[in-house]
Amino acid sequence: MSAARTPVEMAWFSALCDDDYEFLGVPDPKLLSSFDHCRNIVLTADRYGFDNVLLPSGYQLGIDNTAFAAGMAPLTNDIRFLLAVRMGELVVPQVARQMATLDQMMNGRLTINIISSDLPGETLDSEPRYRRSTETMYVLRELLDGRSVDFHGDHLDVTVDPPRISTVSGRSPLFYFGGLSPAARECAAAAADVFLMWPNTTDKVLEVKADMDARAAEKGRQLRYGWRSHVIVRETEDEARAAADRLLSRLDAETGKQIRKKSLDSGSAGVAAQTALRDGSDDDGYAERHLWTGVGRARSGAGAAIVGDPDQVLGKINELADAGIDAFVLSGYPHAAECDLFARYVLPEINHGRLEFEPSPINVA
Hints:
Layout: E1 9-13, H1 35-48, E2 52-55, H2 65-72, E3 80-86, H3 92-105, E4 110-115, H4 126-144, E5 149-152, E6 157-160, E7 175-177, H5 182-191, E8 194-197, H6 202-218, E9 224-233, H7 237-247, H8 253-261, H9 269-279, E10 286-288, E11 291-292, E12 305-308, H10 310-322, E13 327-331, H11 335-345
Parallel strand pairs: 1-2, 1-13, 2-3, 3-4, 4-7, 7-8, 8-9, 9-12, 9-13
Antiparallel strand pairs: 5-6, 10-11, 11-12
Helix pairs in contact: 1-11, 3-4, 4-5, 5-6
């Protein structure tokens, strides 16, 4: 193997939203979200030297991620937490105080995954929903950077001083954000730091990146880019493909459909793109030789996995890094077991570290 050619951030995923299986679509009581189970995934990723871990947010599914992050802060030393925060769920000054407190508990290890899907019990059209997110991100960034806010927008009307408590650095954590609709892209271009893409063919990744670069430049900003997918790595390609087949071996179509419908973002443009990727794959579910779309048959959101032997998986990561991807958020089933495999077979060959940069000012105009 050869090392990745550019430094990238490598993150894992803790299944806080009941998304952990040995066989997709077959619930296993031992793998349902609980503090103990999700703690084990995070501690595994921390022990192996991953740079970050995504803590997703759900309403009907799993456990509360903010409470979980607070409980995990004193149990970890090095790994960052990529905490999913749903825009509009809490008043922004309270979110700022909450995030600053968490960052202190983590000694500066907090990053934020901005979520713009509907709130529980609410349906809002795409344009106003993402406009609300843009305004929220602006006010949150101002407060976490220690500045007073006098903002009067379409969704927020806020005149407030920053909370006394601040992050360890005195600056806002980085904002990671994903979404493919026109409104989502405009929101990301205006306010995000890292634009997360769900898996697709590399030509599609480059197409989206070019569009987002242009949108951000129009607003006087720059974006970094991330990739969120699953991974299945084994000693040989045949073993990896067999593991993928086994993962789906007990799934029926109706169960998969019902699982996909549970997510609050199941009707989003991003999910539609994952469906299109799956519909265009070959009979074995491969959109490319090492990009398998079978995972999307039993989950909403990121619906494909990098599948192959260690050299092949590393090669795909190198290919994406060369295309401009700075951050990878990976997962696998079961999550702790696949974390162990990826950490042993691939992670030591990757030149990785925390993503650090000076974010562009948010353009809320």
